[in-house]
Amino acid sequence: MTSMKEQNEILYYRLIQDHLKEMFPIIYTPTEGEAIQNYSRLFRRPEGCFLNVFDQDRIEDNIAQWGEPDDIDLVVVSDGEQILGIGDQGVGGILISVAKLVIYTLCSGIHPTRTLPVILDCGTDNHELLNDELYLGLRQPRVRGEKYDNFVNTFVQSVRKSYPKAYIHFEDFGLHNARRILDKYQPEIACFNDDVQGTGCVTLAAIMAASHVSKVKLQDMRFVLFGSGTAGTGIADQIKDAIAHESGKSKDEAGQQSSALLSRHGYTSLGNTHLCVDKPGLLLKSKKDQLTPAQLPYARNDQEWEGKDHNDLLSVVREVKPRVLIGTSTKPKTFTKEVVQEMAKHVDRPIIFPLSNPTRLHEADPRDINEWSEGRALIATGSPFPPVEHDGVQYEVAECNNSVTFPGIGLGAVLSRTRLLPPSMLVAAIKALAAQAPALKDPNAGLLPDVTDVREISVQIAKAVIQQAVKEGLNQEKDIPDDDADLEEWIREQMWDAQYRPLKKVERDSASAHAKGEAGSAASHRSAKA
Ligand SMILES: NC(=O)c1ccc[n+]([C@@H]2O[C@H](COP(=O)([O-])OP(=O)(O)OC[C@H]3O[C@@H](n4cnc5c(N)ncnc54)[C@H](O)[C@@H]3O)[C@@H](O)[C@H]2O)c1
Ligand SMILES: O=C(O)C[C@H](O)C(=O)O
Ligand SMILES: [Mn+2]
Questions:
Q1: Which residues form the Malic enzyme NAD-binding domain (predicted)?
Q2: What is the ipTM of this complex?
Q3: DSSP H/E element including 118
Q4: Largest CB tally within 10 Å, which of 154, 167, 370, 486?
């Protein structure tokens, strides 16, 4: 497929678009994980922009060579430290930047030549790669601290300088950098962290659909989040904000009342509603020193848990009786039969989302969850799965992957040329997505729309994002239609579609200011047409 992409981009995109469901798992999760792990051995030609932490003086020039200031709309960047659930993959991480951009083009019509995949090579702590003489990246341990921060900052400032209107998407950074980098740049530029925000948005939308099916309000649900890293705390934050919004509670109150994060350092439970668990079990205040800043708001008072077992998932589930269990732990098979049956004892529609990718790392197989809960569980998974069946009733397993949200959010950000992407724009996106859930009409249909419908979903998400940008005065694009239908039309006509164009049209296009002049495709974004 990669070879076809190089030889005939239109054919590549058309083939995938016409067979989206079949091709998605090949160009994206789970196959992409294998391609990334074998990157240096499968390597034929470089794709994307490689930046080296020891060559910081050249970053600005390297970035600038990809086009004129108006040529790039979207940059996806990774430092390769926490790829999917497979950890540090060094420069192989370039393929996650490439894959996410392919998804943008397929799912929201972002023009393929107006994007830039980037890998920040800071070394790797993966011993297998360090000992592999074919490894293509820097063969030395990861550079951290000030030098790393300067590297990221030089990259961000160079993008700002060369492509002032470009939107930056951060992907698969390590636990200690992902949130920190987002917090630093979110108030300054239009940027997005997919693992924190994309995952939080799509998961909340799925929970909202499950809330509709089970007829229980978000504020009345108890949550256990198993694995409280980048994705787990991103999800917890979205749930907390939504509960605060729905119930009128303060965000702190909502955090404590509605979430428990289970972490490496102990399980943490939120009062009776919301608990986070990580490796050491429930997140507890006494273990503050071991918690990340993102986990801290979810740490529970130790007194609440005195005399209660909180060091394993089953004990926490027994104690909390959650309605919702979400896995972002990278630990396969941890949602055991006992855990699922314990949940199913207390609620009629347990909501269970094993989200760890790739597929082999899922916390449980949806077929098992369905069987163990006697067909009552509402299930969504991080990678695609076929429908499951119990007693002759078929249930669609929704794919709860950030790929359902980030393309639409990015399209909205790019077309509105938003200056920033504040949380209110994400809320708009979540609502637009939740409104499209098939489960609203049929309880056995998916909690999220199918990937086949994703282009239309992206239009709806982009519309909501653009309208919110306008409401907040963040749009630098001033020519945005007010009317709903006109706005949808305006979005659709700017979405790139893989089609061979008649020769005349190609000539016209290459004579336009579209700097890349790629053969056979029409420039479809506004700035490209101008
Ligand atoms: N479905 C999606 O859209 C989506 C999006 C983002 C991430 N993910 C998946 O979520 C997983 C985590 O990604 P991340 O970026 O948050 O990684 P991360 O390293 O930031 O977080 C993983 C967390 O799990 C904890 N953990 C590890 N072992 C544990 C155990 N035995 N019990 C409890 N907690 C444990 C770690 O301490 C860490 O806090 C990956 O598999 C990734 O593919 C899925
Ligand atoms: O890339 C994916 O499949 C989703 C997500 O961003 C992840 O890191 O697992
Ligand atoms: Mn990711």
A1: 196-470
A2: 0.99
A3: strand 115-121
A4: 167
Of ligand 1's listed atoms, the one at least distance from the Cα of 231 is: 16
Pair type for strands 398-399 and 378-381 = parallel
92 Cα–ligand 1 center, Å: 19
Ranking 115-124, 188-197, 216-225, 338-347 by mean pLDDT, the lowest is 216-225
Q: Is the separation of the CB atoms in 270 and 218 below 8 Å?
A: no
The torsion defined by the Cα of 409, 8, 25 and 96, in degrees rounded to 10, comes to -60
Task: Say if residue 171 carries a ligand binding annotation.
Answer: yes
Give the SS3 label for residue 427: helix
Q: How many whole angstroms separate alpha carbon 261 and alpha carbon 325? A: 10
Residue 241 confidence (pLDDT): 87
Residue nearest to atom 21 of ligand 1 (CA): 229
Residue from 170, 194, 360 to probe ligand 2 pocket by mutation (most atoms less than 8 Å from CB): 194
Which amino acids are annotated catalytic? 28, 100
Q: Is 493 annotated as a binding-site member?
A: no
Q: What do you get for the CA distance between the two ends of the chain, in Å?
A: 32
Distance (Å) from CA 442 to ligand 3 centroid = 30
Compute the distance between CA of residue 412 and CA of residue 432 in angstroms, rounded to an integer: 12
For residue 368, the tally of other CB atoms under 10 A from its CB is 17
With a 6 Å cutoff on the Cβ, whether 279 touches ligand 1 is: yes
**pTM confidence score:** 0.93
Question: Which helix or strand (DSSP H or E) is residue 77 part of?
Answer: strand 74-78
E-only strand ranges, 134-217: 167-170, 191-193
Tell me the HSE value of 81 on the side-chain side, using a 13 A CA sphere.
20
Greater confidence, 41 or 253? 41
Residues, the chain = 530
Is 38 annotated among the ligand-binding residues? no
Integer-rounded Cα radius of gyration of the chain = 23
231, two tokens: 């994705």
Position in ligand 1 atom list of the atom nearest CA 234 = 16
- Residues in contact with 65: Cβ distance below 8 Å, sequence separation at least 6, in sequence order: none
Give the position, in ligand 1's atom list, of the atom nearest the Cα of 233. Answer: 16
CA dihedral 53, 59, 62, 68 (to 10 degrees): 150
Read off the DSSP letter of residue 189: S
pLDDT 10s digits, 393-439? 999 999 999 999 999 999 999 999 999 999 999 999 999 999 999 99
Ordered by where they begin, the domains of the chain are: 2-193 (3.40.50.10380), 199-401 (3.40.50.720), 406-488 (no CATH)
Both tokens of 115, joined, read 């994007």
Give the separation between CA 336 and CA 365, rounded to whole angstroms. 10
Confidence of residue 519 (pLDDT cuts 50, 70, 90): very low
